[in-house]
Specification:
single chain; about 190 residues; mainly beta; two-stranded antiparallel sheet; 1 helix; disordered N terminus
């Protein structure tokens, strides 16, 4: 094996991409976040602190896949009472359903460094197909000799499709919690030794 970045990258469709192999989400360089409307006038942002993902980069990049597990109880919006409510039976029911799961089922399309992945998202035991818009951010080698690549991804879901139906109607019209949730993911993945 030759030394240097050339040994872990390759050219494909005008991009420098990682070599085929298994990559794990770097716990020190990730954010699994979300945005939801509150009281019809503002947005609440939060994240899940505990999440793991395995990305299998295939010889044919369009055959690559990802699986991810998110710990429901790790939800954080910066407000303890709200976080406890989100963990409760009104929302995630974290004790009964400790994880949210994602499994890609294919690459629907790509344009340059932008990809659309189809996959199955499971929340509270309910599985729905979602499309994840992924932007490949680049590939490199860390100062610690780890081969890495970066990505960002997003999708929007209707929380009621997953049984997250709690809400309160407002006197002025509308509801306390919006139905649409935007999921935003940023991360680096580290190549695992064969």
């Amino acid at each position: 094996m030759t030394s240097g970045i050339e040994s872990v990258t390759r050219e494909w469709d005008g991009l420098t991409i990682p070599a085929a192999g298994t990559y794990l989400l770097d716990q020190a360089h990730k954010r699994v976040g979300f945005v939801v409307r509150h009281m019809m006038v503002s947005k609440v942002r939060g994240e899940f602190a505990e999440a793991t993902a395995t990305i299998t980069v295939a010889e044919d990049p369009l055959q690559s896949s990802v699986t991810a597990t998110i710990q429901a109880a790790s939800i954080s919006t910066g407000q303890t009472d709200r976080d406890n409510h989100l963990r409760s039976g009104d929302f995630l029911e974290a004790e009964k359903y400790p994880t949210l799961e994602y499994r890609s089922t294919g690459v629907k399309s790509h344009d340059g460094n932008e990809f659309v992945l189809t996959g199955e998202l499971t929340i509270k035991g309910v599985t729905r197909e979602v499309e994840l818009e992924v932007e490949f951010e680049g590939v490199g080698r860390s100062p610690y000799g780890q081969d890495i690549f970066g990505f960002s991804a997003s999708t929007e879901i209707d929380r009621e499709d997953f049984g997250l139906t709690w809400n309160v109607a407002l006197e002025t019209g509308g509801v306390v919690v919006g139905k649409k949730i935007k999921i935003e993911i940023e991360g680096e993945a580290i190549r695992q030794e064969a």
